[in-house]
């Protein structure tokens, strides 16, 4: 009878292919002999594996086709399923066919469905492959009725966790993570289950690459014959309170690993069976860690004294008194043993209870760890309260648990949890620190759905808000009305009147904003320093003569005056205005005065640039310390999930927590006299609160950034609020220096920031000839005029060959035009790119991650073009993403164990046989920045932390600089096409900037002022501390700088004889 196998995952290297072939051929041979291991696909990990391609018949030599042919889904080069576990259409046909034949592949054990489905490992090399047509029952499958819709919320049932079941005793714990309970252990399988073990399950690896096995059992042993050695297998999964000697019932699936061999992978927390009854097993159980505080000596005393009654004594209410009768056990020891016994037993029962109600294992273990034996009682009483502020406990998970416990849809606790969810979602997605009451009310209505929202009683939301306010889960302040109809719409319901005037904060964000405002206000009141101005001027003059500096502009001198005097100050300005040079001089002045300087930035790339700024390419015996803010503050490694956990939720309230998150804080401040924060526009509110909390009260703080760039990803708008308040001494650098004015990149960036189409050489992509041709649309071949003019664009003739900033127009419907234009650029269409290595020097930027001209589309093309597959270049696959040796990758979240952080760029150095990847972060860039390169290894499950980086979103690139940048814009990017985005992208380029965009897309982006208005109150909190009179000579210097700038512009205008040019752009 034909057997159907799901498609195996493609191999990632020639070495791993050989190793997997050995495992696969042994398994195929065992299938041919009829030794079918029990196996069931697990719904907990997203269902059966998906696959692509047609069917093929695998024939094993020496066997008849009727007995040994195995029908397998076969494809060469197919991709594994996506992370959500969805399969392809072909697999869905087999799954429906199995259901139509009466076999449910989601719930039936392997023994009952062996005739319909058999296991498969990685693709092997069969002796013969015979192509088959589509399944014969395709018509029946197509006619099968759709599954019934899910029931109402109150009747929701947890998804059944299915898979093979084994029982046995834990013999040895190889690895256990106490934070998330991930465990690797050896299990002695009970005799009743030994016969069902697959061949190779009890093998052990002998090290080295590939699965090199040493058999521990013979075929006779596998059958469970008397006198056989016990069958010991490797198990992996999340096992809370694991201990040697535990008797467990496990549910999971078998998996072959190229390096570690065959493993039983759990898909649910194990069920602890009755404790052992014989004394040797009791001794192993108690001394193996099942009872914390009970070592081998104490365990021997208990078992020797109580014998088979040991567990009965521990379970009894008066166990403390009974235990003291044992020789060597005192009253304190007895009390501790009884307490630990009850806690561990309660946690295991609680975890089982939660998983029965659909809570995934890692979260169930956190809840059980918090409440212990009282978990079931607390969860039944109020599931929302029980799961509050636990990692991974989102509203939807708590709501699903409440529904399974029979809680009503209008439960006040549910409304309160919905309000917190709305606050967290808006903070993470929109950057709002608070919401107006009307926004809160509308957000809750959308979250609950129109039907449930309409059925709420009058005043229910107000009552929930009052309860949250009393518990200090939220806070509120009087907020300015957001629109003319705000008060009217909020007062439609008389019950809303008490909240209509307020903005509602999540407590953690309210505390962060209040702390930032209080700290800045305190620093503003500090006594200002009085530098020796004549001595500073002599030092500047001598350094300028010795090193060939140009003279500082008046505005730069004003910043130096602020930096030496003020406890807190701000430097802001666009590209080419001299921020980097001014900061470099300030750092050298501080160090010459004997002050210790620390420099930090929100991202790793920006921190590397800081090291370059401080050193200016000079060799320094004691270089200035520069790092990311997270690394500087020494964030404690949180109890985050391990591989495969479902903890990554950007709306998790824990993401905004800052108190107690870092080792550096008020109690253990940074050892620095001056702290410089670069790229401050990327600084979000919680991180700013943590940073200021760690800076010594008498230390200076300097924020440096460009307020016109994109705001922070996290909540808040710190730099803009500080500038808007006019409370903190600040200097704006607006003068573009003569050397920078010669750069078309600088002129283009300032033109776009002023709302004008940049005056750059323009050509177009021709789909017919598949080349970049000139002139651009509208005649001429030059730069576009002011975009604010009506009518078609006009162009002026300029030199394409000598330009460092160009614009290539593409058709609005040309999905493949971007790839073609990029290929033409790589082939030499733009002379400015000659001499640059596109693999290391060029970065493609785009607003979107999906769709036309997105990172997902462009990364595939760029990888094939710049790092194509080859025989000597190994690769592996994670979901839909291929990682190949030589690929450029980006870390997309902070990992405090590996010490790599969001935004760090690296290169794949090696792909190992077990699917792990070694990445080198830093490399040449790090060497230039005096930062050593670091090698970091990622397991296959950890590859979700990496993204391909041949093409990046503009948000991910903020804070970085590249020699060449290609900015791709399309019409379908319209939701993000705004001035701040293209200005930020243009300012990332140092030597060459290429814009690939339809005319209308670029015009839309330049003329659209982004809706970056965020609900914050930091500026209003700081406004009362604003200066009413000049506090230092910088005021006069800034005024003088304005006069000089005006005179220079007038002279330039006269020299140009009326020709329009890009002027200086003040920071808004």
Automatic annotation (TrEMBL):
Region spans: Disordered: 1-125, 139-158, 768-795, 1013-1034
Instruction: Pinpoint the UvrD-like helicase C-terminal domain residues.
Output: 948-995
Which SUPFAM superfamilies does UniProt cross-reference here?
P-loop containing nucleoside triphosphate hydrolases, RuvA domain 2-like
Pfam families xrefs:
AAA_30, HHH_RecD2, OB_YrrC, SH3_13, UvrD_C_2
Q: Which organism is it from?
A: Micromonas pusilla (strain CCMP1545) (Picoplanktonic green alga)
Q: Which Gene Ontology cellular-component terms appear in the entry?
A: exodeoxyribonuclease V complex
**PANTHER family for this protein:** DNA HELICASE B, DNA2/NAM7 HELICASE FAMILY MEMBER
GO molecular function terms listed in the Swiss-Prot or TrEMBL record: 5'-3' DNA helicase activity; ATP binding; DNA binding; single-stranded DNA helicase activity
Q: List all Low complexity biased stretches.
A: 24-45, 105-118
Q: Taking every annotated instance into account, which residue ranges of this chain make up the domain ATP-dependent RecD2 DNA helicase SH3?
A: 858-921
Mark out the compositionally biased spans (Polar residues): 1-19, 786-795
- Indicate what this protein is called per its UniProt record: Predicted protein
């Amino acid at each position: 009878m034909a057997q159907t196998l799901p498609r195996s995952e493609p191999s990632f290297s020639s070495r791993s292919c050989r190793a997997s072939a050995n495992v696969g051929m042994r398994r195929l041979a065992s299938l041919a002999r009829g030794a079918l291991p029990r196996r069931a696909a697990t719904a907990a990990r997203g269902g059966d594996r998906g696959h692509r391609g047609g069917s093929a018949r695998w024939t094993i030599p020496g066997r008849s086709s009727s007995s040994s042919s195995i029908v397998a889904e076969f494809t060469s080069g197919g991709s594994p399923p996506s992370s959500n576990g969805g399969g392809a259409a072909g697999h869905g046909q087999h799954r429906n066919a199995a259901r139509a034949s009466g076999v449910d592949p989601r719930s039936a054990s392997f023994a009952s469905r062996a005739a319909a489905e058999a296991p498969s490992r990685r693709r092997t090399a069969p002796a013969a492959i015979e192509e088959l047509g589509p399944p014969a029952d395709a018509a029946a499958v197509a006619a099968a009725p759709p599954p019934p819709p899910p029931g109402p919320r109150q009747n929701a049932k947890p998804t059944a966790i299915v898979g093979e079941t084994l029982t046995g005793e834990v013999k040895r714990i190889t690895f256990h993570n106490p934070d998330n309970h991930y465990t690797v252990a050896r299990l002695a399988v009970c005799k009743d289950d030994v016969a069902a073990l697959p061949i190779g399950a009890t093998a052990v690896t002998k090290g080295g690459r590939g699965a090199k096995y040493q058999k521990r059992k013979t075929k006779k042993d596998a059958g469970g014959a008397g006198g056989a050695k016990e069958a010991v297998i490797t198990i992996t999964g999340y096992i809370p309170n694991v201990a040697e000697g535990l008797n467990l019932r496990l549910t999971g699936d078998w998996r072959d690993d190229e390096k570690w061999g065959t493993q039983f992978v759990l898909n649910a927390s194990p069920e602890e069976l009755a404790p052992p009854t014989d004394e040797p097993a009791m001794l192993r159980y108690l001394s193996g860690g099942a009872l914390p505080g009970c070592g081998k000596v104490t365990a021997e005393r208990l078992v020797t004294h109580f014998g088979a009654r040991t567990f009965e004594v521990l379970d009894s209410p008066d166990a403390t008194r009974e235990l003291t009768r044992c020789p060597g056990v005192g009253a304190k020891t007895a009390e501790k043993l009884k307490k630990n016994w009850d806690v561990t037993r309660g946690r295991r029962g609680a975890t089982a209870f939660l998983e029965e109600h659909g809570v995934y294992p890692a979260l169930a273990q956190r809840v059980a760890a918090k409440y212990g034996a009282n978990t079931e009682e607390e969860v039944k009483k109020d599931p929302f309260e029980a799961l509050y502020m636990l990692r991974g406990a989102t509203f939807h998970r708590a709501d699903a648990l409440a529904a399974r416990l029979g809680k009503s849809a209008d439960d006040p606790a549910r409304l309160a949890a919905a309000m917190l969810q709305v606050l967290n979602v808006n903070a993470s997605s929109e950057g709002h620190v608070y919401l107006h009451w009307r926004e809160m009310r509308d957000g809750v209505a959308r979250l609950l759905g129109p039907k449930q929202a309409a059925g709420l009683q009058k005043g229910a939301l107000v009552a929930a808000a009052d309860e949250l306010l009393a518990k200090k889960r939220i806070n509120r302040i009087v907020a300015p009305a957001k629109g003319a109809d705000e008060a009217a719409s909020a007062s439609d319901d008389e019950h809303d009147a008490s909240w209509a005037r307020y903005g509602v904060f999540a407590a953690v964000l309210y505390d962060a904003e209040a702390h930032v405002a209080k700290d800045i206000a305190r620093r503003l009141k500090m006594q200002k320093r009085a530098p020796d101005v004549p001595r500073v001027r002599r030092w500047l003059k001598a350094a300028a003569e010795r090193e060939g500096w140009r003279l500082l502009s008046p505005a730069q001198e004003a910043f130096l005056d602020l930096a030496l005097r003020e406890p807190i100050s701000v430097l802001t300005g666009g590209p080419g205005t001299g921020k980097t040079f001014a900061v470099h001089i300030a750092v050298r002045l501080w160090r010459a005065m004997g002050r210790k300087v620390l420099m930090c930035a929100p991202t790793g790339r920006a921190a590397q640039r800081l090291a370059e700024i401080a050193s200016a390419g000079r060799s320094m015996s004691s270089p200035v310390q520069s790092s990311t803010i997270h690394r500087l503050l020494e964030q404690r490694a949180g109890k985050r999930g391990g591989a495969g956990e479902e903890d990554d939720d950007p709306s998790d309230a824990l993401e905004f927590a800052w108190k107690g998150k870092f080792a550096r804080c008020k109690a253990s401040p940074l050892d620095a006299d001056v702290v410089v924060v670069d790229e401050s526009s990327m600084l979000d509110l919680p991180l700013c609160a943590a940073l200021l909390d760690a800076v010594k009260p008498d230390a200076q703080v300097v924020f440096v950034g460009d307020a016109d760039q994109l705001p922070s990803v996290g909540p808040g708008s710190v730099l803009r609020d500080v500038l808007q308040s006019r409370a903190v001494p600040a200097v704006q650098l607006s003068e573009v220096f003569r050397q920078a004015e010669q750069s078309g990149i600088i002129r283009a960036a300032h033109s776009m920031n002023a709302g004008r189409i940049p005056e750059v050489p323009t050509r177009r992509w021709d789909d017919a000839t598949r080349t970049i041709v000139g002139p651009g649309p509208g005649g001429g071949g030059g730069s576009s005029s002011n975009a604010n003019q009506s009518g078609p664009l006009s162009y002026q003739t300029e030199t394409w060959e000598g330009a460092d900033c160009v614009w290539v127009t593409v058709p609005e419907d040309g999905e493949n035009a971007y790839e073609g234009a990029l290929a033409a650029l790589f082939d030499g269409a733009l002379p400015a790119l000659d001499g640059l290595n596109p693999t290391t020097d060029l970065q493609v930027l785009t607003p979107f991650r999906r769709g036309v001209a997105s990172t997902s589309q462009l990364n595939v093309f760029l990888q094939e073009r710049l790092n194509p597959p080859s025989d000597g270049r190994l690769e592996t696959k994670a979901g839909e993403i291929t990682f190949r040796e030589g690929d450029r990758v980006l870390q997309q979240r902070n990992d405090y164990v590996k010490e790599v952080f969001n935004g760090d760029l690296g290169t794949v150095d090696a792909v190992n046989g077990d699917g792990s990847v070694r990445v080198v972060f830093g490399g040449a860039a790090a060497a230039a920045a005096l930062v050593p390169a670091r090698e970091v290894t990622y397991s296959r499950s950890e590859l979700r932390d990496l993204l391909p980086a041949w093409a990046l979103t503009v948000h991910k690139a903020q804070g970085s600089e590249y020699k060449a940048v290609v900015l791709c814009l399309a019409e379908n990017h319209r939701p993000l096409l705004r001035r701040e985005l293209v200005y930020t992208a243009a300012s990332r380029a140092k030597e060459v900037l290429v814009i690939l965009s339809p005319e209308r897309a670029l015009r839309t982006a330049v003329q659209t002022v982004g809706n970056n208005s965020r609900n914050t109150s930091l500026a209003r909190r700081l406004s009362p501390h604003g200066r009413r009179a000049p506090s230092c000579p910088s005021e006069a210097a800034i005024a003088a700088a304005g006069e000089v700038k005006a005179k220079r512009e007038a002279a330039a205008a006269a020299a140009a004889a009326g020709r329009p040019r890009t002027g200086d752009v003040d920071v808004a």
